[in-house]
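Subject: Interface between my chains keeps coming out wrong

I've been trying for a while to get a sensible model of this assembly. When I model each chain on its own everything looks fine, but I need the whole thing in one frame so I can look at the contacts. Pasting all components below, labels as-is. Any help appreciated, I'm running out of ideas.
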Amino acid sequence: MRIIVCLKQGLDPKTVKISRSREEFDLREAMLVTHSEDKAALEAALRLREAEGGEVLAITVGRPAAEDSAHEAVAMGADKAIFVPAPENLSGRSLTTLILAVIARLGGADLILAGRAPALDTTGPLAPRLAAELGIPLLLDVVAFEASASGIAALVSRGDAGLRIPVALPAAAEVIRGVDRPRYPHPSRIAVAWDPGRVETWTLADLGIAEDTLVAETESGNLVLGAERQRGQTINGEPDAVAAELVGILRARRLI
Amino acid sequence: MDFTLPKNLLLFREMVREFAEQEVRPRAKQVDVQSWPDMELTRKLGENGLLGVPFPLEYGGGGLGELGYCLLMEVMGGVCTSTATTIGAHIGIGVMSIYLGGNEEQKRRYMPDLCSGRKLAAFCLTEPGAGSDAAAIKTRAIKDGSNWIVTGNKIYITNGPIADVMTVLAVTDPSLGVRGGVTAFIVEKDMSGVSVGSIEHKMGIRGSATSEMVFDEVVVPSANVLGQVGAGFVTFMATLDAGRLGLGAACLGGAQAALDSMCRYAAARQQFGRLIGEKQAIQWMVADTAAEVEALRSMVYRTAWLVDSHRPFSKEAAICKLYGSEIASRALNKALQVHGALGYNRDFPLERMWRDARIAEIFEGTNEIQRIVIAGQVLRPYGVRVQS
Amino acid sequence: MGMDLSDLQALMGGSFDEPVGDTGGVWVVTPDGAIDDGILRLIGKARVVADALGGYVSVLAGGGAAGGDTEAAIRAGGDKILTGGGIPAVPDLVEFFRDRGPQAILFPSSELGRSLAPGLAQMLGGSLCGYAADVAVDSIYQRILAHQPVLEDAARITLGLLSAPAVVAVDTSMLPAAFNEPWRHGEVADAGVSWGEPPLHEMVDLPSQPKDLHNASTVVIAGAGLLEEAGFEAARQLADELGGVIAGDVTALDAGWIGEEQLVGATGFTIAPRLCITVGVEGDTGFLMGIAGAGCLVAVQADPTAPIIPVADYSVIGDPGELARALVNKLRN
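Reply #2:
Try treating it as a single job with all components included. I did that and got this:
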């Protein structure tokens, strides 16, 4: 069984701040990380390989720094990773085009996994686009896969409950993080993850794609700031009136 | 000169940081309160490859060398010194003595289990009459056919109560002294005559298990002689040399944690209408600590490079331990002062970190011994012999 | 003379002379046919966008004849409501929209919407915003913009959708209230399609992480100001009503109301819930460090000079126990 996992590198939302004065992101402390839900997808793939055998291949498309994510995938347990250096500000459609070209050159897969779109990313979700282009079934909100004699099933989150959905391969799935965190890469795998051959670099030329054909269909514009945080607001009055006012405020802010 | 960490070590450090935040920090208070390691945590450390980090892959190690080990100890030292001590005694002197002194058969027999955490190691040198004066040990090993009968008491043994494999230094020929009369042995917990003696009740690193180890006519096969008969002292001293650096790295982590803590508090606490971080007295404590931490970090990483590139490192490792232990104590003292009474509160981690740090100036070779080691190295080219 | 009033008539709620055109315009797709408050808000947003672009609002509702409240859909701004049987898949929608040349297609960000929008954008050659809080029109370029919330909606990225159709999955709960304009007219028609019914799947219990102080999105912290157990009980009920966890300060711990793992304050740990309500807590430095990550801090306090007041987003001054009980009552009714 061959599973392909698409991993993206992006800004760690915990390290990104907003500069109200300049109305833009403050990236001075920002760190680049492998998107955590893509790692959850890789974890699901690795567990399925442990149950069913086969191979897990990772694909990362991005700027040069993103190659670290490909190595991280190998350190976590992927058999091999493909890294495609790509121009900045790749749009969702262009990213899909590149990933499809890699998948084609690899000869396809039984299961294609990706996490949900990263929070600060404007490319949008990947798995649904791949499923549509390849004409294969799509599963959303997958928490885990189960392998049994009758085949593979996906455990899918629907609100408070879950569904068990049999998977007809080949298929694509969008994975979300479950209860178990993705495995820590083992030091012995980290030690060799940068050795030759673990990560292959395929350029746009290798994929037969000219850079000027990657035309963006979306354009990120300016940042619209939310209301500035206001501390020290007091609510006075009789308990019942005050309770009503507070509940109203919190409901309007969608906190309760 | 490239001071950047290699990519694989950057990823390793990230991995250790996540592990430390998820698994170690939530347990740090409890291991101190219960005065015992968390064996579930020890099992997880082993499963995740953190108990064999520096050793070659062929022996089941992590393959990340001394610098990888120092990064591990730096992170752990900043989160839970007790856990760092358990790891350090296991990797830095326990397994290390087998790696440095053992033959191929012994390494293959013991290291895979030790590196994976299936077994834990301890290093048994100190005795009631032999602390700094390690040559004054009295534990005796007498040849009996192809075996050795080992009898004696070792004290202040970190991991003693939880170790499966111990390296023990014993006198094999009293007439020869340390040059030829002392041998190192690999002793297993299950060998008849091995028992855990009294448990040490400590001021700090309470979450690390420390005890007396009693060897009562333990029959040790000659296949378990570590290195050459009579050459044990050299093996043990070389092991301590190597282990010092790990301790220095743990002190670096503790000092950095003190710095982070005092900055967080200085940014939160207001008195006299201003943040205390805006007052010079506090700023100078922060600056002094930051300067020492930066210097120590450069020292530790450079010394790890010396080890990994097979260059001499004794003097530098001793400096890391000496300097690191004193910097950590100074940093935590300043952090305690910045926090005021809040730092003195047992619910807040700072007082535990302060108690934990003090031992670093004492064990693994007291700082006085470190000074002798350093002076010996520095004065030797001048023809001055330093008393050891 | 004779002005061309057809556009004006369209804006006023449908021309009575010509049928609503099938091409162009803004479409709202509700794949399972539900026309709830969220969809009505989405239709209202489509109305605003269509008015700016000069076009019609069409609603495509799957789910079969049972359908939803099509009259409400018209009052909310829909010009034409098309109903179809079954639930569409991406190829079904590609087939439906292929010759209709819509300018924009809006989906709710429900599971169905999220499974259809990206694939549809991909196959129609359009632009996608996978998660938007708002949709607007750039008046200069007549281009559709989506506003994507980031960092818990601390800000929104304006995303220009350059290729038609602009496909957007919208979090309808973030849209303004739906229109309810009884003077609007529109038509309801059969979409003329028959899509498949999705299979039913086995329901299972998924393992869930127990909620604790560090992963709960709402935390209620009981403090010394509650004075007695009855007050703490009110705080605990408040936590239950909000679906959050109860915690306490050192006084609560010493009184035996909470256990060590529920202690907030000078523990060296900082919690970061979306909503943190303190009940009877003064807020010394150690405590404030412990809740520094809270998204919104509400302090219920008797003392208006307590240090927590200037730090809290909202402060409610009064007897903490009484106010906690009042809040519980309000939430239950």
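Reply #3:
Confirming on my end. Confidence is low (pLDDT under 50) at residues 14-18 of chain C.
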